[in-house]
Amino acid sequence: MKKLIPVYVRVPVIFAFVFGAMEYFIDSGEQPAFIKFPMIGLFLLVFLFLLIAIEIVANAVDNVTYHLLTEEQKKQLEEAQEISFTESKFFKNMVSKLTRTKAIEQEADVMLDHNYDGIRELDNVLPPWWVYLFYGTIIFAGIYLVRFEVMGDYDQKQEFETEMKVAKAAVDEYLKTAPDMMSKEKVTLLTDASSLAQGKTLYTTNCVACHRADGGGQIGPNLTDKHWILGGGIKNVFNTIMEGGRDGKGMVAWKASIKPSDIQKVASYVLSLQGTNPKDAKPTEPEAVEWKEAAIATVDSTKIAAK
Ligand code: HEC
What is the Cα–Cα distance from 296 to 6, expressed in whole angstroms? Predict the structure, then answer.
């Protein structure tokens, strides 16, 4: 075997295999694993080093043992090594079992009588690899015929429908858990037109009764000014819609009826109304304070400082 695959092929192939396995099994996001986790890079380096070292050692051992052999043994070894794989006994045995070809010297045994202007014909047996493959197709056809034509197991249309059902179930399962993917910590302001349009639809169905279609406010406070009772910015607004306002004020927790990813959209839509100054807007509530985005930064930096 050693002779069959030379060292300059063997080492890179083994290394590439291990490298590939690492990248495949280690989840490192978009970056390759050996860049994201320097330990992996180090491991691969050591591994490569070891591979080369093993080759060098094995080679040295071979050299030493070779010198210890008698002349007779050296000759035998050289002869054995000179035989290539296709000349080896194992390979020849296998080929003869699979093909059952007759050697040229035995051709007389299978020669047929007729002779057309010197063109003669050999009566070789069918090669076993072909025969067994053929038997396999017969068995397959038999089972197929009985299962699908006689017993009437599913047809292509049913197969398609079951696959669609399975796929739909998977999508439903995904959507059931999908709402958990959005939370106060993760929420970001959406600015794309389609999300805002969806947010607007949700707002129109659920919120206009108290906040007015233009967000100017009625029972609920004005949502278009810079002043907020419960805090401005996407995180606070998202949280207010999720959890509701202060007790007894009338703003319910919408998480019971709208899923979080949709609340993100409606919150983004609400924030898109900032500064629109609708006509007859409700005056700023006395308890509302002006919201400055910088306020978040202050909070964050204290958090970092506290750590
Ligand atoms: C039944 C009336 C009512 C409905 C419907 C309603 N709200 Fe409110 N909303 C209020 C009230 C009242 C407040 C003030 C809560 C408080 O003072 O704690 C409020 C507060 C808010 C606030 C916080 C305002 C601030 O200054 O901090 C936001 C944001 C908000 N609502 C968004 C919505 C959205 C989005 C919807 C629709 C999904 C909605 N509201 C539906 C009555 C309502």
Answer: 63
Tens of pLDDT, residue by residue over 190-228, are 999 999 999 999 999 999 999 999 999 999 999 999 999
Closest ligand 1 atom, residue 237 Cα: 29
The verdict on the CB of residue 228 being under 6 Å from ligand 1 is yes
CB distance 266 to ligand 1 below 6 Å: yes
Please tell me the residue having the least CA distance from ligand 1 atom 36: 207
Q: Quick one: which of 247, 254, 250 has its CA closest to 203?
A: 254
CATH topology of domain 193-306: Cytochrome Bc1 Complex; Chain D, domain 2 (1.10.760)
Ordered by start, the domain boundaries in the chain are 7-82, 193-306
pLDDT band at 303 (very low <50, low <70, confident <90, very high): very low
Quick check: pTM over 0.90?
no
How many CB atoms neighbour CB 155 within 10 A? 9
